[in-house]
Amino acid sequence: MGRGRVQLKRIENKINRQVTFSKRRGGLLKKAHEISVLCDAEVALIVFSHKGKLFEYATDSCMEKILERHERYAYAERQLVANDSETQGNWTIEYTRLKAKIDLLQRNYRHYMGEDLASMSLKELQSLEQQLDTSLKNIRNRRNDLMYESISELQKKEKRIQEQNSILAKKIKEKEQAVAQHAVQWEQPNYRVDTSFLPQQQPLPSLNIGGNNFNQDAAPELGRNGLDLTLEPLYSCHLGCF
């Protein structure tokens, strides 16, 4: 005998209602997964239990994208239908759409911060963990790139400083060698001073008195033009007078 058709009405027994909810929820999630795989469709399923517990399923864990797409299509459709409606109604729709988006972002933020995880399934937790691992890996890679760039810049700067130090040391060494060579030249005994630039002194004229030549000390008075003054005629004149 086949199963009878279940009458669709609220189950009054609390335990039976909970068991039926668990079974039907699993079957519903399974059917959603099957239709997404078989028909290559994007499926988003959201279920709230009578206690307010959330159960959801999304193709490739893209619930946010599917909801945003749904909001865009629903909003566009509502805009076409209510094109002649009042402006206040449009603002109400926009407010509802933005509020739903804000609620979704806040929920995701709490999940990323490790809060409100009781309502997430095992698959959702694994997907969240994978997302966090990917984000952490990207952060570490970026940090390592910045560290390598900083180290490379410091190495280049060190190389430039070393080259400058080598040039300065070479100049100092050449300067010291020049100073030492100059000091050695001054200490040599046969070092001669160049006097070619000094004016040459002319020899003093000699004074011939009585046939004898005297130098400058014996003849204090000379002619202005350096002439040789001879006193022999005057001496002969005096001798003749006597």
Shape: elongated
- The portion of residues forming beta strands comes to 5-15%
Task: Enumerate how many helices there are, as a single number.
Answer: 5
Q: Average the pLDDT over all residues and give the rounded result.
A: 76
Q: What composes the largest sheet?
A: 2 strands, antiparallel
Report low-confidence residues grouped into runs of 5 or more: 206-242
Fold and architecture overview:
It is a single chain. The chain has 242 residues and is mainly alpha-helical. Among the domains are: 12-61, SRF-like; 63-120. The chain has five helices and four strands. The strands form two sheets. Strands 1-2 form a two-stranded antiparallel sheet. A two-stranded antiparallel ribbon has the order 3-4. α2 (63-81) runs antiparallel to α3. The longest helix has 66 residues, at 122-187.
Topology:
Elements: H1 14-38, E1 44-48, E2 54-58, H2 63-81, H3 87-112, H4 122-187, E3 207-209, E4 212-214, H5 232-241
Antiparallel strand pairs: 1-2, 3-4
Helix pairs in contact: 2-3
